C-alpha cells in the first residue's frame, strides 16, 4: 500500500479539497499509472453532490474522476500488455465479474458486478474505489486502455468517458452516411458526439440552448444548429431525424425531441438528470419511434474508439486547469460555461 495525493469531497455540500488516499501496491496483474490528465465529467459533479442518491448513493469521502490518461510507472509480474513508460488510459470501469453473459460479450458496463473507477466496493483495500482526481492509480491490466501515440494528452483524457459514451450508441444504432443525426446539448459529451457523428459520415444537427455556441457547433463538425428553445427553428426539422443523442445533464422536455424523429427513429439518452422525465405516449406510438439509453461502453469498444480517434485525429476540445480550480470548474460546468471539457493538469497536484 502507498499514499497518493487526491482531491476529495467529504459530503454532498462540501467543496472538493486536497487529501491523501491509499492505493494498493500493484499485484501480479496490475498496472500503476502516474496520472497526467483527468477530464471533468458532469457525472463527477452529480456523484460528488449525491444527485444520483436514488440509484447510486454516494459514499464519502469520494474522489471522482474517470477520464484518466497517464504513464505507466510499475507493472505486476504477470502483466503482458504494458510496461513502464507506456501511455495508458482508464475510463469508468476498473473491474467486473468477467464471467456473466455481458462480460463474455465484452459489455462489462452491464455486468452486475462491475466496479466503477470511483465509489464501488474496493475488494483490495476495503472501502470504495477512488478515481482520477489523484496523482496515481492502480488498475488491473484488463481494464487499462492503450492511448494512441500522437494525440494531445489533455484532449485525449475525455475520450475515456465522453468519447466512448457518445461513440458506443452511434455504432449500436448504425450511424453512417445518409443518416440525419441530432446531438442535444453541446457540452463535454455533446461536442464529442458531434465529432463522431461527422466522422461516421452522418448529416449532423446540434440542438443547443446557448446561442453563443452556434459558431462552435459548426466548427466542431455540425452541418446545422438549432436553438432548441426557439419553436420557429425547431419546426422545420420535425419528423426528420433517424437518430438523436440526448446529452443534457438537467431537467428538460423529451416530448419535443421525440417528435423530431422520423418513423422508426430512435432517441437515445446518455444524459442522467437527477429528476425523472414526463413523457407522453403519442410521440412514441405515432411513428413507432423508440426511446432508449446507453451507458459508456465495454473495454474492447473503448479501445476501438481510441484507435478510431488515433486514425481520425479526434480529441476533445479542452480547457486545461490546475486541480486547485476544481470547485470553480464545477460551477462553470453547471452554467454550461466550458468549451468543451475541463481537463485537469495533474502536475498541479504533484507540486502541492
Ligand atoms: P456538460 O458538459 O455539463 O454538458 C451538458 C450540456 O447540456 C450543457 O453544455 C448544455 O448544452 C446542456 N444543458 C445543461 N443544462 C440544460 C438545461 N437546463 N436545459 C437544456 N440543456 C441543458 O455535461 P457532460 O459531462 O457532457 O454530461 C452530460 C450528462 O451525461 C450528465 O448528466 C452526465 O452525468 C451524463 N453522462 C452519462 C454517461 C453515460 O454513460 N450514459 C456518461 C457520462 C456522462 P447547451 O449549452 O448546448 O444547451
Ligand atoms: Zn463520465
Structure, described:
With 352 residues, this protein is an alpha/beta fold. It has 2 domains: 2-161 and 317-350, Alpha-Beta Complex (Quinone Oxidoreductase, Chain A, domain 1); 165-293, Rossmann fold (3-Layer(aba) Sandwich). Helices cover 24% and strands 26% of the residues. The chain contains 12 helices and 16 strands. The protein has helices at residues 42-48, 101-104, 153-156, 162-172, 188-199, 214-220, 231-234, 255-258, 282-285, 299-312, 326-334, 347-350; strands at 2-8, 17-23, 30-40, 68-75, 87-90, 93-95, 115-116, 136-140, 180-184, 203-208, 224-227, 241-246, 261-269, 290-293, 318-322, 341-345. The strands form 4 sheets. Strands 3, 4, 5, 8, 15 and 16 form a 6-stranded mixed β-sheet that branches. A 6-stranded parallel β-sheet has the order 11-10-9-12-13-14. A two-stranded antiparallel sheet has the order 1-2. The mean pLDDT is 98. Bound molecules: NADP nicotinamide-adenine-dinucleotide phosphate (NAP) and zinc ion (ZN). NADP nicotinamide-adenine-dinucleotide phosphate is lined by residues 41-43, 46, 161-162, 165, 185-190, 208-210, 213, 247-250, 252, 270-273, 294-296, 333, 336, 338. Zinc ion (ZN) binds at residues 41, 43, 66, 161.
Kindly summarize this structure in a few lines:
It contains 12 helices and 16 strands. The chain is α/β, with parallel strands linked by helices and 352 residues long. The model has no long low-confidence stretch (mean pLDDT 98).
Q: Biggest β-sheet: count, sense, barrel?
A: 6 strands, mixed
CATH class of the largest domain, named Alpha Beta
Tally of DSSP β-strands: 16
For the terminal residues, how far apart are their CA atoms?
21 Å
Pattern of helices and strands: EEEHEEEHEEHHEHEHEHEHEHEHEHEH
State Rg.
Answer: 20 Å
With helices defined by DSSP (H or I, 4 residues minimum), what is the helix count?
Answer: 12
Ligand inventory: NADP nicotinamide-adenine-dinucleotide phosphate, zinc ion
Question: Structural class, from helix and strand content?
Answer: alpha/beta
Amino acid at each position: 500500500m502507498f499514499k497518493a495525493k487526491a482531491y476529495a469531497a467529504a459530503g454532498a455540500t462540501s467543496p472538493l479539497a486536497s487529501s491523501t488516499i491509499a492505493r494498493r501496491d500493484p499485484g501480479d496483474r496490475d498496472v500503476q499509472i502516474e496520472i497526467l490528465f483527468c477530464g471533468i465529467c458532469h457525472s463527477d459533479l452529480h456523484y460528488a453532490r449525491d444527485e444520483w442518491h436514488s440509484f447510486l448513493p454516494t459514499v464519502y469521502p469520494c474522489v471522482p474522476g474517470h477520464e484518466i490518461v497517464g504513464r505507466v510507472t510499475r507493472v505486476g509480474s504477470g502483466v503482458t500488455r504494458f510496461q513502464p513508460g507506456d501511455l495508458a488510459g482508464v475510463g469508468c470501469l476498473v473491474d467486473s465479474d468477467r464471467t456473466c453473459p455481458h462480460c463474455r460479450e465484452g459489455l462489462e458496463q452491464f455486468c452486475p458486478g462491475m466496479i466503477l473507477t470511483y465509489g464501488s466496493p474496493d475488494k483490495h483495500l476495503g472501502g470504495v474505489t477512488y478515481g482520477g482526481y489523484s496523482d496515481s492509480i492502480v488498475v488491473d491490466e484488463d481494464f487499462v486502455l492503450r492511448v494512441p501515440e500522437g494525440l494531445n494528452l489533455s484532449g485525449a483524457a475525455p475520450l475515456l468517458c465522453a468519447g466512448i459514451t457518445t461513440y458506443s450508441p452511434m455504432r449500436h444504432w448504425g450511424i453512417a452516411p445518409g443518416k440525419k443525426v441530432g446531438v442535444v446539448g453541446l457540452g463535454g459529451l455533446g461536442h464529442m458526439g458531434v465529432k463522431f457523428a461527422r466522422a461516421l459520415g452522418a448529416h449532423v444537427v446540434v440542438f443547443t440552448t446557448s446561442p453563443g455556441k452556434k459558431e462552435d457547433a459548426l466548427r466542431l463538425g455540425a452541418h446545422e444548429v438549432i436553438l432548441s428553445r426557439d419553436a420557429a427553428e425547431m419546426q422545420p426539422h420535425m419528423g426528420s431525424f433517424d437518430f438523436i443523442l440526448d446529452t443534457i445533464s438537467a431537467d428538460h422536455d423529451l416530448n419535443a425531441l421525440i417528435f423530431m424523429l422520423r418513423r422508426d427513429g430512435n432517441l437515445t439518452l446518455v444524459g442522467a438528470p437527477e429528476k425523472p422525465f414526463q413523457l407522453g405516449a403519442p410521440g412514441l406510438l405515432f411513428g413507432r419511434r423508440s426511446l432508449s439509453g446507453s451507458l459508456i461502453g465495454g473495454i474492447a469498444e473503448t479501445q476501438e474508439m481510441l484507435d478510431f480517434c488515433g486514425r481520425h485525429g479526434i480529441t476533445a476540445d479542452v480547457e486545461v486547469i490546475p486541480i486547485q480550480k476544481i470547485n470553480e470548474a464545477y460551477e462553470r460546468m453547471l452554467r454550461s460555461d466550458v468549451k468543451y471539457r475541463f481537463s485537469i493538469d495533474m502536475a498541479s497536484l504533484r507540486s502541492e
